[in-house]
Amino acid sequence: MKADVLLGLQWGDEGKGKIVDVIAPKYDIVARFQGGPNAGHTLEFNGMKHVLHLIPSGIFHERIINIIGNGVVIDPMVFKKEILDLEKLNAHPRKNLFISKRAHLILPTHRLLDAASEAAKGKEKIGSTLRGIGPAYMDKTGRNGLRIGDIFSPDFKKKYNFLVEKHKQLLALYDFKYDLKEHESSWFEGIETIKEFQCIETEKYLNDALNENKSVLAEGAQGSLLDIDFGSYPFVTSSNTVCAGACTGLGIAPNRIGKVLGIFKAYCTRVGSGPFPTELNDATGEELRKTGNEFGATTGRPRRCGWLDLPALRYAVSISGVTDLIMMKADVLSGQDTIRVCTHYNYNGQKIDFLPYDLSSYPLTPIYKEFKGWKSDLRNTVSALPQQLEDYISFIQNEIKVPITLISVGPDRKQTLNRSGVLV
Ligand code: GDP
Ligand code: IMO
Ligand code: MG
Fold first, then answer.
1. Which of 122, 194, 240, 366 has its CA 20 to 30 A from that of 59?
2. Is 261 exposed, middle or buried (0-12, 13-18, 19+ CB in 10 A)?
3. What pLDDT was estimated at residue 50?
């Protein structure tokens, strides 16, 4: 069996959590492959709304094994809180959640370093979620990090203190006040919680499962335009969010990847700093934010909103080899008289149809094609979609050359349609 991969094609928050939860019943295993508690994946069903940060979005399906892969960075404090919250909601994470021994830990000092670095950058800040992601991945690639496997070692405390000393020296370079003691005790309580879980060689577990014909869905976090290599650097996150990240973040070989499900919103959003060619700094942008409830699931920050950007979408699709597209939040566009889609950019005086390397140093203006909007409230759609939406979908499919197989028309599990307009 091959593993399918589900990932975001924009700047995150496309609705990955919702779709993983919806399609999870088709799989035996759901495995998160990168990122950490910077992610906020929202699930809604049976009148309940729940946001996951570290735990894979298949967790509410008791039969399905959920895996936190080696590519993820784990903050034990966030982990413990998520587990307690899930247990209150009748999920059974102690039964169906496994953690990779190779996943790296986010220390309280990583969070402090994130905050100190952002404060020092002032106006140039990345707009990080301040969850310690960048500093934790820096220690991973710098070969200083602590891993889940280390927590079982008798010298874990010694290793921890050694790294914290290093961090204190770095923190001294910033004009930044902090109180480390405040967080350390709950961090170590979180470590004790993690020890109660099955911490295993998840790469072996996953490859054995594939050999036994079990089905695996790899769940991405963030989005392709936040990828450390291919995103709008330096305004990116610190991991590979593209499909290749599923191989390195889970230990699944490229030739074992099956479908690549790419998720995008029918428009665009971005939270944090950095270029956003189709951003709407006007009443329409405000309206999309309000109708789409575009506020960060992790930080609560308002998301920047804009029209769909096809050159950027095409770029994300090509880098990950997306085989199926899933279009989210079509309902948010209901009521717009005109819907615009960016087909090209005017870049430094030239018309181009691709995402250039540098989005900031030269004048870049989007060139739009206009579509007629529709009036009907899609959230209750159980039959045919309005013709105007069909036209919009056909245009995107033709431009990107990948079929749109699912359309989401509301936050609830049940508000998901296949291309025949039938509920999934
Ligand atoms: P993720 O990080 O990709 O999992 O996405 P988030 O959970 O951060 O953000 C998506 C938001 O949109 C959440 O509040 C979802 O409940 C909501 N959502 C998902 N799909 C739809 C949809 O089709 N329509 C509407 N209106 N909201 C949706
Ligand atoms: P999900 O999985 C949207 C953004 C931050 C910031 C940049 C770097 O919910 O889609 P970091 O904390 O990683 O150092 O922040 O990346 N960012 C996200 N934006 N959705 C996310 O995750 C994000 N995770 C990080 O806002 O601009
Ligand atoms: Mg999110």
1. 240
2. buried
3. 97
Ligand 3 mean position, distance from CA 178 (Å) = 28
Strand partners, 150: none
155 is catalytic: no
Instruction: Compute CA distances 377 → 128, 154, 326, 336, whole Å.
Output: 35, 59, 19, 11
DSSP, res 18 = H
Distance 376 CA to ligand 3 centre (A): 27
The whole-number pLDDT of residue 382 equals 66
Cα–Cα distance measured from residue 325 to residue 8, given in angstroms and rounded to the nearest whole number: 10
Centre a 10 Å sphere on the Cβ of residue 281 and count the other Cβ atoms it contains: 11
pLDDT of residue 182: 82
Q: What is this structure's pTM?
A: 0.97
Largest CA distance in the chain: 65
| Catalytic, out of 4, 28, 41, 412 | 41
pLDDT at residue 297 in the model: 82
Residue nearest atom 16 of ligand 2, based on CA coordinates: 237
- Three-state secondary structure call for residue 392: helix
Phi (first) and psi of residue 278, to 5 degrees: -100, 20
Among protein residues, the one whose CA lies closest to atom 13 of ligand 2? 237
Span between the terminal Cα atoms of the chain, in Å: 23
> Quick count: other Cβ atoms within 10 Å of Cβ 146?
20
Residues lower than pLDDT 70 in the chain: 382
Task: Please give the distance of CA 368 from its chain centroid, rounded to a whole number.
Answer: 27
pLDDT tens for 39-94 read 999 999 999 999 999 999 999 999 999 999 999 999 999 999 999 999 999 899 99
Q: Determine whether the shortest distance from the Cβ of 38 to ligand 2 is under 6 A.
A: yes
pLDDT score, position 306: 98
Q: What is the pLDDT of residue 419?
A: 80
Bond preceding residue 234 cis, omega within 30 of 0: yes
- For 276, other C-beta atoms within 10 Å of its C-beta total 23
Contact predicate 97/59, CB 8 Å: yes
